[in-house]
## 1
Amino acid sequence: MNTSLAANINSFLAAMVLLTAFGMLVQRRMYGLIHLFAWQGFFLSISTAIVGFVAGAHHLYISSILTLSLKVILLPYILHILIQRLKIHKEVETIVNVPMTMMIGIALVIFSYHLTAPVRELSTLMTRSTLAVALATVLLGLLMMITRRHAVTQIIGFLAMENGLFFAATSATYGMPLVVELGVALDILIAAFIFGIFFFHIHTTFDSLDVDQMARLKEED
Amino acid sequence: MPLLILLSVPLFASLVLAFIGDRKYAPEINIFGSAATFAAGVSLALDVYANGPMLAGGKFFFVDAFNVYLAVLTSFVSMTTAIFSRRYMRKEREHGRVGPIRMRFYHAMFQLFIFAMLLCLLTNNVGVLWIAMELATLSTVLLVSLYRTPSAIEAAWKYFILCGVGIALALFGTVLLYFAAEKVLGEGGEALLWTNLSQVSGKLEPTVLSLAFVFLMVGYGTKVGLVPVHNWLPDAHSEGPTPISAVLSGLLLNVALYALVRCKVLVDGSTGTHHAGDIMMGFGLLSIIVAAFSLLRQKDIKRMFAYSSIEHMGIATFAFGLGGPIATFGALLHMLVHSLTKSSIFFTVGHASQMHSTQEMDRIKGLIRGNPLVGWGLMFGVMAIVGMPPFGVFTSEFLILTATIKDAPFLTPFLLLGFGVAFAALFRRVQPMVTGPAPSYQRPIKAAHIPVIFHMALVLAIGIYMPDFLNQWFHRAVELLK
């Protein structure tokens, strides 16, 4: 596979990652969200494998397999089970002001391109153009966590941010050193365990996973 | 060798405590484990004091004057907190707030948390630093929600989400740092080692590092509890069990600030300007002012002292940002004395709220009559924390103020305003709590007096006479951070 073809495929995959990020921003149904998240992880893992192949960076294969097993299979599976157990799979979240959210999202993408410009100029890697997309994915995940009110959605936003970070590491430097990648994966796994416990606690205490119910701790005037 | 013991004892203790569960002697094992950690910390410190900085474990660990003093502090406060938590948690069990399963969980996670902080301090790898920081967050999230009340769960959720986001941004900063380092040091794990980075910091690309610092600042700043990314802190401190509030406030914030300062040294070396310092000064000053005024409005006692922690971390961040030998010395000292004083305050506050079965300050009264140790402990703790002489906080705040007058005189009024408002706010609240007759609903308790006396004596001793080795130690750390 020659480099320019690989770069093209990689850009296409980056576009798909961004698309899924936007999709998640406005997806109301729980299952739809999880599927979008799994797709995002899938594109990410393919992109990582291609970069690893073309650049000859073989540790990226491990990262790619890690992404595939963790973010495409394990985490969506856990979320599926949690949602079924908590009987919230039919819930439809109301999202206020979709056009506004989309506009902010677009602004964030432009901002990301602007912010990463100095890095892009310095880099010689074939993946340099996707760094902006990676940062945009991080910021879109953040936006999702801010605009949505459901605990599960917030967690998916958090995991989408993590996807963006992973993508950033791949596109800026062909991946972080292996010890760091493994450590990050371990942290995500522990986090998954913790939010699983949390969903049950929130559900039993508040009878719903709507985080707007949690408004006890405020500054009193 | 002491380094290996220092890290493996808490990890091992965590496993043991998870295994033995809620036996009668579990708190004693917890104390014993922390004491062993402290002993290892002291011996490591003596080693470094005699032989200078050292690398260990195939360059994986790095110990110098800066991190070893924080490691000793961490192990010391965790030991005293373990002593305090023995009596405190026993009382909580009698009140039926926690059961056996949660006690098992509490002890195991406490030790894991100590391990994560020590790993964070001692690792040489900037990536592992991040991982350990995340681990420290994750191990305390479920401790904050230990009581399972609606507000405790809300606080823990906020803590989890906000710190998760913050720390994610810090990882992006670390990626950018690696990007710049890889150009100079080549690919692979070597490029993230702090010892390598600090040697070549002059060659790192300044534009990338300034960008990276913004992300690192917001990311680690969230964990330090700096305004405007501090929202998780008062909630997590007020809703968790008091021993956890004490270690969060006294230790975790310090460790996060440590990470930030390490990154700042690299960025300064690369850019050669005061860019990173200015950002830190801005965040620090904003934290001081906002926290001081928030202190005035608090009704919950633990929440009030949480805001006081934000103020003091703001002071230390501001001083590190200001730079220069005096301010840096002041900041290092401030981290030490704040940690000792604040954890001691939380010990007394924990007992005070147990005596009155509430954290509402309006209902806490007559502490000195009820229990002299708790009453006077709180009184002296507050006198120390607001910066009254002869306590150690006075020395550090005085140094920082002097440096500010010299280097950034136009900021002095803001700093003084913050100090003054915090002083007034805390005193106004504490006086009615400690003096006066004991109310009828007050219940006697057996307080853990050793930790409080120990901490206050140390803060007082540092304020009156700074031992020579401590002085030298800080001077070496100041050299490192230049």
## 2
Amino acid sequence: MADQPLLELKNVSASYGNIKALKGISLKVYPGEIVAMIGANGAGKSTTLMVTCGIIPIDEGDILYDGRSIRGVAAEKLPVRGLCQVPEGRRIFPRLTVHENLEMGAFYRRDRAEIEKDMEYVYNLFPVLRERRKQQGGTLSGGEQQMLAIGRALMTRPRMLLMDEPSLGLAPLFVQKIFDIIHDINQQDGTTILLVEQNANLALQAASRGYVLETGTITMEDKADRLLHNPEIRKAYLGE
Amino acid sequence: MDYFIQQLINGITLGGLYALIALGYTMVYGVIQLINFAHGEFFAAGGYVGVILLNYFAGLGYLKTHPWVCLGASLVLTMIYCAFLAMAVEKVAYKPLRFSSRLAALLSALGMSIFLQNGLMLTQGVFDKPYPIELAEGGFEIGAISFNYLQILIVALTILLLIGLNFLVFKTRVGMAMRATAQDKIMSSLVAISSNRIISLTFAIGAGLAAAAGIMVGFYYGSVRYDMGFVPGIKAFAAAVLGGIGNITGAMLGGLIIGMVEVFGAGYISGQYKDVFAFIILIAVLYFKPTGIMGENVDDTRV
Amino acid sequence: MIREFKKIWKPYTIGMLWLLGLLWPLLGIHPDGTLSFGSTFRVWFYILVVTLTCVILYLLNKSQALKPMQAVIGRFRSATSAFGAKVPRAFWFGLLAVVMLAYPLLTDRYAQDVAIIVLIYICLGLGLNIVVGLAGLLDLGYIAFYGVGAYTYALLNIHFGMSFWICLPIAAALACIAGCLIGYPTLKMRGDYLAIVTLGFGEIVRLILNNWMSLTNGPNGLLGIKAPGIYIPTFEGGFSLEYFYLKKLYYLYYIALALAVFTVIGVYRLNFSRIGRGWEAIREDETAAELMGVNTFTLKLLAYAMGAIFAGLAGAFFAARMRFVSPESFTFLESAMVLSMVVLGGMGSIPGIILAVIALIVLPEAFRGVEMYRMLAFGASMTLMMLFRPEGLIPAKRVGGRSEEREG
């Protein structure tokens, strides 16, 4: 484990209007890790990711990426620095074709040849996308959309990928496939991943470390396998 | 029959102009879901800046010697001027309200419209300002149908601008970013698109097209007036709604239909009520098919 | 400090330079082929001074430098409100009533004329407030109902010699019917479409008034409308009733006052009634209101009809006051003006709207020399209010945005 975290949240608070969604979150993600964040609906998981990406402004605290503060940095500047998110609900551009959706991922990049290479890489990773490249994004099935969302994020050449509920609404077969791919991305490309999931079992199996989020605060932090065997966690999140 | 064809030509000319204005409404609505009430004023400002520049060139004597250069220069400069005007309006009156209620944004737009209209009146006077129309006078006849060069010029220029816009929106990177921003602003900022810049650009392009329409209307009718933006503005909005708001091809089609209806309505039913036809179409479309002819699904939850 | 600089002065400088660039072509390029900069710079400089003052005041306010002054104002305010609380409300209302009643005795024709205009616009503003402020439906064609009321009285009076008092309810009824006719097809539309469609209807009404020569005499308007009259008993040669026209301006003032008071009471009662709560529910969240059993369509139609009634009354009075009507008086700009009164005053706030009407009518009268800038200032203040104080001068007591809007 490297000594400097790639992403660090320091006591971050954020709110929607009068409702406090995050009450002082601190977490660290080191380069090359997969970190899982689990918690119930409304615990603030998605908010944490949106705050990190600069979509929701923070009230207090600081966010460090690659050692520098990114508090108040415009959202659109972060993908350029390698911080990218696969948001909840996938957010495919519904009336852009699959190919255009992928091109959007590479929007800030100018290196034509490299973009072509990455495009090939994504198409090889998800052959079904190549078949449907001329189709509009909105016409894909849920699983295909999830692949497209991941593919689009990969097109930004991320160093750090934030993934929000990649298993949501997918058939079990697809879920396994998506998690295999997450594992591959992490192992082969060395991409650091912060994974937010309601499916605690899968997430903790894929991750090396985990955080538990409850109503806007982090209540537990440990190695993933230790969390997986923690009786409290098993009771609360694994239905035992 | 000849009368019919003559009217058809007039309808195409007028329809093309409405289409140019309608595009600004539809693009802005597509990107930020706002009815830009001030859009008609960009059109009027275009008409005025155009005549100011043409008169200036005429004063220098260039208009006689190099008419086409002057015309081109005026057109381009006017489009640039209105683009900058629109960007300023967006930054001041719309951007701070992007997250407040739609009513607030709409009222702000309305305020801007009144402000700009009166600004034009105060700087340019309340009277009609004549255009140096002798530039494209004359024409030719085929049978009993007369074509005049001015109309041909207007139609040609309109088609050129529409093709240019289609290319920009559907074939370029920037166009793709515009479409992406219209579909999902948060996601597009997650892939490094600056939505602020795209919104500015959208306003600029829409106003540029409206400015071109303003100059052409100046030539077509021979003069401009400070409040000329209001009625064509509503008609163009009707065109945008008719075509399905947010849809670029729809706006072009809608503009053409509104132009035709107005010309034929005036020709065959009643000239006095020609403005009413556009309004009736607007109301009928919104009542029976609010998504328009080519409309994308309008999100009903966001009343 | 550097942050402050970046946040305020940089955009301000760019903005002012941008403005200069936009102003110059309009003012500095002349048809004789010359360019000039003097007039542009003069206008620009005025704007610069005004805006700079505002920015500096804003900064001072933010950095607490104005605190001593605020303390003084605050103390003054609390002192006056303490005094106000000691005296019963009835006293203030009584005082207001006395002043309003005595007004024509103390003032000249001109002041009475202005007061009548203010009272007419109070009726219009409060009527529109029902539609926009209470029910949250943006209506840009409101002036059409005013026109319907005015033409109703004008036509009935000219052709049938009907008296003002009979025509008043007829005008209200016709305006109400017009409101229902326009409201029925439009009310299922979404908010901003509704705005455009009402604008379209308003324009259609104006175009009909303008073009139906045989009925309305087109743009020339209708002349020869009689003033309101009353029967007064005379005893010359036995008891009889004599018809007496109230042509004097101060009689008209009292009629306008009565109409305005009627409107204020009416709107106040509606505001705090069951129906008013229904309207507010619709404004806050139409879907939720419908699910809670509020009959949204009927209530929206009712809001339209009620708003139209007050406009119709005001219109009939307007025709009687001017004794002349023409389509000129019912343009979109009038609608926008009434709307800006509602917006400036504070949507749903009766005292706010009255204050805004007084401000928007009396201020331009007071500054006669700059009357040409009136609409410019209207437009600018409408935008500025939305930017800095969307709730209006005197915010309504129960306010709230629609929950859906806050998310989107």
## 3
Amino acid sequence: MNISNQEYGELAKRVSPPSSMAKTIPMAFLIGGAICTLGEALLNMYTALGFSQDDAGALTSMSLIFLSALFTGFKLYDRIAQVAGAGTLVPITGFANSIVSPALEFKSEGYVLGLGAKMFVIAGPVLVYGISASIVYGIIYYIQTLL
Amino acid sequence: MAICEGKTFRYSNASIISYGSVVGKVESDGPFGDEFDEIISDNKGGADTWEQAEALFQQKALKHAMEKAGLVPEKMDLIFAGDLLNQCTGSSYGLKDFYVPFLGIYGACSTFAEGLLLAGAMVNAGYVDNAAAVSSSHFSSAERQFRFPLNYGGVRTPTAQWTATASGAAIVAANQKPPFIKAATVGKIQDMGISDLNNMGAAMAGAAYDTISRHLKHMGSHPEDYDAIITGDLGEVGSNMLYELFRRDGVALEQHHKDCGLLIYDREKQDVHAGGSGCGCSASMMCGHFLKHVENGDLKRILYVATGALMSPTMVQQGGNIPGIAHAVEIVNR
């Protein structure tokens, strides 16, 4: 080879086009914002229907998760995500998509070893570290209440 | 330390007597869409799963090649085939019903060139009367094995490539008619220190440079001696890196270079980022387009250099790099 690995790595960096942030950030803001606005509208609607603040919040999350699963099933969520980027990844809808998409994908290997085993292949780490973090936070909070 | 130069094989009696190609919907929408033998527009062709579909693509590609050569399975002597899936699923399951002696091969996206040079060698040596080289890739089966579920909303980076849903098959026999296999150089595994799973072009460009350089040196030829030097699936990033590597040697390769990954799709209209990839990408472009033009004399001498990223997701997760490989097959009109 006429080049060292270090130089080669620099060359790779130089010729690899970066993501166009001028396009991706506004789209993430707009579509992510639209999902959150929909969430707010749902929250207001459930509150207006007489649900308590807690119940309305839970219903809002459930509605968004349902819609995300539906859109994933119709093969629309990933298409929107190609434009929205983090706008569809960050809200709760992205989490739902990360569970529904492997469930659909690995159904072909059966309901137990396919769907069941692979369903949390993307969301699993989020659950593991999310729950672990909440436990650590809970312990710190508990100790704090003792002081 | 002395560097292994390897050998360039010279063939005197190996002709590609027929070839067949099958592609999916996205590939049929590309600029070469009407040159392939068959289009399976739902990408599944009636199969239940993506893996079964990929197997079907290989089966159909070989069938097209056999029909054109007037061959039936009983008259076939040997098949070399491979694909990207674990255990070379597409090849073993797709070709089992032919009941023809089979050797599975793996060179990632370089597999078709590997098959072609091996088939040529077996025919040239006189061990067999004919031998087929087959390979395939399928976007959906590759995504689920190497990346994410199809409907997962992850965003691909600009350097990522689109695995072609395609298969190509070529049958080599003793000298009958063009295209003829004239020479071949086996690639060396090149670890260039690249570990980005979304930048396969960068992982393979070094291997392409090494193989092309050695082939030209052994043949005493220059890039301008070829109508085209056709790499498999370097894509935009890998092609630009290849030019830069040759520029360091004072060679302007870009004037003689084509890349199947850059050709197979219309990158302006199709959302394929840095271009196509996969064993089926260059296999279908060779069997659908290039071999035809060598046969009819539009192209007199080409150097087909299929490039493969020998990527193991496990090794990359363990902190390893992505080694690349490239095999060169020189194909001529007479």
## 4
Amino acid sequence: MKATTPASPPRRSPPGDLAIWVFICAELLAFGVFFVAYAFARVGHVELFNESQLLLDRFSGALNTLVLITSSYFVVRAVAAIRKGEATLCTRWLLAAIGMGSLFLVIKVTEYGHKLEQGLDLGYNLFFMFYWTMTVFHFMHVILGMVILAAVALKAHRGGYSAQEHTGVETGASYWHMVDLVWIILFPLIYVIR
Amino acid sequence: MQYQSQSVAKLYFIAAIGLFVGQILFGTILGLQYVIGDFLFPEIPFNVARMVHTNLLIVWLLFGFMGAAYYLVPEETETELFSPKLAVALFWIFLVAGALTILGYLLVPYAKLAEMTGNDLLPTMGREFLEQPTITKIGIVIVALGFLFNITMTVLKGRKTAIAWVLLLGLWGLAVFFLFAFYVPDNLVLDKYYWWWVVHLWVEGVWELILGAILAFVLIKVTGVDREVIEKWLYVIIALTLITGIIGTGHHYYWIGTPEYWQWLGSIFSALEPIPFFAMVVFAFNMVNRRRREHPNKAATLWAMGTPVMAFLGAGVWGFLHTLAPVNYYTHGTQITAAHGHMAFYGAYVMVVLTIISYAMPLLRGRAAANSPKAQRLEMWSFWLMTISIVFITLFLTGAGILQVWLQRIAENPEPFMVVQDKIALFYWLREITGVIFLIGLVVYIASFFVGGDEEEATA
């Protein structure tokens, strides 16, 4: 059995391209600044933040958390598949992850629609300024992540990756995990923690 | 020079340098008017000199960008320009229109100029940096469209590279956002709001794409590092630029009557705007360290490394200094803004245009790779003279600004504007002296084109 397993190169750390890690660090810094600003603003308006938080739809937020974690799992499977040289399988897992990304967007847009119907827009109060800016900023990142995964899936489909050389898949996966990670912090911070 | 049609760039570069001289001359006049208020009055009042100083800067940078595009695009796309004749025709139209506009500023009172040029039909005049008569603005749009048509057609028929696409995106963005110069709502808040769509989205948005593309092109040439590596960094840099810069417009919306949330949005996003510039510094130094060849044009390499450093300091650090709303509440519209403006424009845009000129001009003048060592030495002297001068201009203006903020806005008994201006006059004198040294640096720069022409080329 062992002889048939393709030899894989030694794992590098961090996985993927170094440039994506510069980008990821910059992005985490951007979100970090937002989290600090949020905390800073909340100190002065605890009541307002607590009351406004109750107006959010925690169910759709939780559902979206599950959706993104599932998508990350799919991406993990895609990387595992390409490490074994199974490009078709890798492509399918990536498409599944993109599918979950789309589901996230649909749930989020529905949530946004309800908020706007209630008149809870960007200028409603300080809390909703943060709610809109941070979630829309994250929303844009989900779209960017999907574009990156789609580019990787296309290249995988065309046979551009192998068990030996698949830096691109790891690069895309790293970015997607960052998008997921940010949501995992963002969701409790805005929707839950009081 | 690999393609015949690249030679049109030479015209644009020469005009750019010529107008640069005009800009600096008016800069030294202005600097003196800060301390000797009636210097050259009534022939050249302060407001006219300022208009000429800023307008010339923008116009010569545009000449530089166009020259850069005409030089770089044929080489990137591996094909001749779509129409070199159109490029030459547009050059003369742009130059004559620009010269007439500047003469208009200098020879006729501004209100009279507005009347003469039919501003009543479509009023667009009277806004800072966009003072050009409406017909000049229409001329700019026509020239820009012709230029974009020429460049886009060239890209479409040739090899498609990331550098060409990023440059094209930046140039199209430049033209599209200029259209807001024609939109002048009666409501003053809206007027300012959209004015920034030209001013901010140019210099902190699409111009940065042009800067990134030109820098990446020169770095590929002088370092010989793989295109894939350089293009990857270019993508990271432009993504960071757009993520931070677009919403970063909010740092101009603090006190003009826009909703309060802009104080948060503007502060947070613009605080992140130094990141792409920092990435640019890492990128340029990394590429030069990993170089696969020793390019004989040392001067161009120096400019290419200086650009991101000075852009990071001027646009990044000096921008961050006063970008947070609570800080800006005190510093708004003081000499701190002027300090930032000088170093940011020099570091980002002046230097990148001088970088491409430094790389391309020897080739356009028939050299195989670089100027003679003598010419390069002189050029590198001018690099240090101008760069160190701008650092000191910035420091003196920052000193003036800090004092101004303190005396006029924070002190227990705030003093009136003009009283404070008198008290900080020493800083203005120091700035003026440094400005003259900058002018000397510029003279040395121009001299570098005329020395060592009959000597052998430098070798690596």
